[in-house]
Amino acid sequence: MQTEEIFPLVDEIGNVVGKASRKECHSGSKLLHPVVHLQLFNSKGELYLQKRSEKKDIQPGKWDTAVGGHIDYGESVEEALMRESREELGIEGFIPELLFRYIFESEIEREMVNTYRTVFDGKICPDQDEIVKGRYWKITEIENYLGKGIFTPNFENEFRMMKNIL
């Protein structure tokens, strides 16, 4: 029997101020909860993206950040990043660099996104339950498809922010 996921609730600067279930956080309640994203580049400067499973409750079937996941209550941001990277792509042994934090809001939820980047040329083994497929994209290829409905809105927003600092 699977227990319901519990997420920390945070204030606008990331301090934990409570906790709530996944269902409560994704009900349109606008409870601010933290997540991690990993922008995974290879040594050629290409960006790895995952195509989300049709089973996902948010943005099914769209291309998205290489790794993205919720932080569990009692877990640090860094622990969540490493756990999600292992679970989603089977990768370990990389050195993450924090790029930025921002608040993303949709009609379903409100997240504090902790965005990291790394360069990784090792083997990637996507979790078939979560990810339909994944691949490295040239930056110009991503730019050509922005606004055409194939990427998640969150990825497009984050990609634009990332381009300004890289």
How would you characterize this protein structure?
Keywords: Hydrolase. It holds the Pfam family NUDIX. This is NUDIX domain-containing protein. Residues 31-159 form the Nudix hydrolase domain. InterPro entries: NUDIX_hydrolase-like_dom_sf (IPR015797), NUDIX_hydrolase_CS (IPR020084), NUDIX_hydrolase_dom (IPR000086). With 166 residues, this protein is α+β, with helices and mostly antiparallel strands. The protein has one domain: Nucleoside Triphosphate Pyrophosphohydrolase (Alpha-Beta Complex). Helices cover 21% and strands 36% of the residues. The chain has four helices and nine strands. It has helices spanning 22-25, 77-89, 139-145, 153-163; strands spanning 6-10, 16-21, 32-41, 47-52, 63-65, 67-70, 97-105, 110-119, 131-137. Strands 3, 4, 5, 6, 7, 8 and 9 form a seven-stranded mixed sheet that branches. A hairpin with a 5-residue loop joins strand 3 (32-41) and strand 4 (47-52). It is globular, with a radius of gyration of 15 Å. The mean pLDDT is 94.
